Amino acid sequence: MAMLEIKNLSKSFGDLEVLREINLTVDPGEVLVIIGPSGSGKSTLLRCVNLLETPSGGQILYQQKDITKLGRHVTDYRKKVGMVFQKFNLFPLKTVLENIMYAPMKLNRVPRVEAQRQAMELLGKVGLREKAENYPAALSGGQQQRVAIARALAMQPDMLLFDEPTSALDPELVGDVLNVMKQLAKEGMTMVVVTHEMGFAKEVADRVIFMDGGYIVESDTPDEIFSNPKNERTRAFLARVL
User: Fold this and answer.
1) What sign results for the dihedral spanned by CA atoms 27, 40, 14, 83?
2) Which one of 40, 98, 228, 229 has the lowest number of neighbouring Cβ atoms within 10 Å?
3) Inter-residue long-range contacts of 168-175, CB under 8 Å, 24+ positions, other chains counted
4) What average pLDDT does the chain have?
5) pLDDT single digits (tens) 169-190
């Protein structure tokens, strides 16, 4: 049974149609990578899945329940489907440790001692235990993004959405973030990743989707997408970026 099923999803901003008739499923433990040119609708699709944008039409079913009808219960859904953003979005006036502890304590009523223990464990997982008492401004972009991943994991989500998590980073910092994501994939985390990192898509994805013009143009295994793309638009895009 699919963890996430999207049916005929559309999204418009005024007269601008950004998503058109999107249909896809995500199975438990699957790593789905979405690629495509800027402006193709990739990030808007993720923002709709997390209800940061309200879809104009269609359904988003999470464990067979239509999340577009959750209303004020959307917070309960977001506990299960976490999101890692391009720009980190850490609280600047909280330490790294406090950033990770905040949501479990506030939303899940986790006692402070337990929240701190879990946060330190997660910092170990992303290789940043020694930065626990630092503030975000004292960290590199790559370190801030790894803290953002640890913060998302602190809610013990079933699925993580990554919206171009390395695009704001200097090239030499990208590898550390991708290594954390690769480890999560090995551990069976269900992930939907919008990225320009084609090497990550080839190596880690179970399935790759190519989007253009608000449509899913092609969906297949990494081998097929990168070695034998069926659609001319996919071929043209890959010729430019590879």
Assistant:
1) positive
2) 228
3) 168/86, 168/87, 168/88, 168/141, 169/141, 169/142, 169/145, 170/140, 170/141, 170/142, 173/140, 173/141, 173/142, 174/142
4) 95
5) 988 889 999 999 999 999 999 9
d(CA 240, CA 206): 23
Radius of gyration of the chain (CA): 18
Contact 120, 97 (CB under 8 A): yes
This prediction's pTM: 0.94
Going by C-alpha positions, the residue among 223, 126, 117, 218 that lies closest to residue 165 is: 126
Structure tokens at 29: 């433990």
Name the token pair of 33. Answer: 């990578």
For residues 66 and 59, is the Cβ–Cβ distance under 8 A?
yes
Q: HSE, CB side, 13 Å, CA atoms: give it for residue 201.
A: 28
Residue 72 pLDDT > 80: no
Whole-number Å distance between alpha carbons of 21 and 6 = 9
- Specify whether the CB–CB gap between 129 and 123 falls below 8 A: yes
- Confidence at 121, pLDDT banded by 50, 70, 90: very high
